Amino acid sequence: MTQAITRERLSDLLVDPREDLDFEVKNWLDLQNSNEDKATFAKAILALANHGGGFVALGLLETDSGIVEAEGRPATLDRYSQDLINGIVQNYCDPPFHCAVHIVASPDETLYPIVVVPGGHRIPVRARRAGPHGNIVQNNAIYIRKPGPRSETPQSAQDWDYLLARCLRNRRDEMFDQIRDLITGAVPQIEQPTEPARLEDWIRVGFERWHTLTQVLPEHVGPRFPHGYYNFAYEIIGERRQISPAQLPDVLRASVVRHTGWPPFWYPTREGITPYPIDGAVECWLGGDTQTPAENRDAAHSDFWRIHSEGMAFLLRGFQEDGMEVQRPGRSTILPGTAFDISLPVWRIGETLLQAQRLAENLFEGPTTIRFIATYEGLSGRALTSIDHRRHVWESRIARQNSITLNTHVDAQAIDTNLPEIVHPLLSPLYALFDFFELSIQLVSEELSRMRGGNI
After folding, report:
1. Fewer CB within 10 Å: C terminus or N terminus of the chain?
2. How confident is the model at residue 295 (pLDDT cuts 50, 70, 90)?
3. Please, what are the domains in the chain?
4. What count of Cα atoms within 13 Å lies in the side-chain half-sphere of residue 377?
5. Rounded average pLDDT over 211-232
6. Long-range contacts of 106-111 (CB under 8 A, 24+ apart)
7. Is the pLDDT of residue 190 over 80?
């Protein structure tokens, strides 16, 4: 199945690019004439497919100072056509799958091919054939992504366990989707703690820090969120592992969940936006990027976040809809402060809850619960819409209330399996502000499945 990916998500990959487990860069491989280059590319997509999907950007080179354009740019990009790419998939991958190919502009308007490798495979994908002279790719071999990042065959029982567990989960998710088509269940909330002030205090301090940082900026620039924002904050409750402050950055990087192009609590490495320690927490402010003038910074990419090793997290982000005016060539203009997309809240809440579950697994021992609070500010006058026109919102539904706060308290171990049943009751009051719009469990399930499959 072809993955439908938004232009915004692909463009995000070329903003301060860094190789990761789900993102690999390759130089200008000659995929028309060089069998060695074809095998090199095949090994990368085999590993990404078994990892759960990802992206290969062509024409880039990783150096000690960062990722730069590789030498040898071809006169045209015809050698990276979708038919040619999928011909390599057919020759090397068993079972074969379909890759989408996009030509994407970097921030400096340079064009690069990005190949979207689908995940969600119910069995491990193996190499159908060996590379030239038996090198690069081995016949019948199975490749996975490993820290480094690098593509290798499984070397340990743990490697095999991760791979097979992912395939079993894909089968399980398919079964759950079928069951949800027949019956809708509900996940009961955990009883609220008797002393909830700790999370509220954490949120208050987070806003105070953000106001301190942004007061040096001109008014009405993107990083000050002039048209509104949303804030996600949570507290993990359980038995914490003992980790040193120096270990915390590695834990946070390992806890990032990237199903969309700009994941919550993204941990950048570029100078000027790298997270830093403060008051016992790790803090990151993308809105303070000195390499881009404040007036050119987008609210949706000016995140401010803080995470404490005690299991407290705070994220503040502007609305993606407010940057659509310059991102929709050929379509009707969406002015900042006027639109509220029907799909984005489901994706953002879902992805953040999955990140909270992963952080809980990496920071805590045994069972944990998560208290989660979401606040949306700047809703008044916005109309419910579908910015990518995938869903039809027939009536004009306008919000008159400017803000809303939502909260839930759930078993962290239930998030992965029961994500739709958690997200649906949490978000329903938000959607009801738009002239009583009724958020269906079917919409939530479909959008979360689309998000987790990378189909956005």
Report:
1. N
2. confident
3. 7-174 (3.30.950), 197-452 (no CATH)
4. 13
5. 93
6. 106/11, 106/14, 107/14, 107/15, 110/69, 111/77
7. no
Enumerate helices (H) and strands (E) in the chain, giving the number of each. Answer: 9, 19
Phi/psi for 233 (5° steps) reads -140, 145
Total number of residues shown for the chain? 456
CA torsion through residues 12, 166, 123, 42, sign: positive
Contact 410, 190 (CB under 8 A): yes
> pTM higher than 0.70, yes or no?
no
What was the pLDDT predicted at 36?
A: 92
The DSSP code sequence of 135-186 is -SS-TT-B-EEETTTEEE---SHHHHHHHHHHHHHHHHHHHHHHHHHH----
Q: For residues 359 and 365, what is the distance between their CA atoms, to the nearest angstrom?
A: 11
Q: Which two tokens stand for residue 140?
A: 């019948």
Query: Residue 232: beta bridge partners?
Result: 315, 374
Closest alpha carbon to 300 in 269, 264, 331: 264
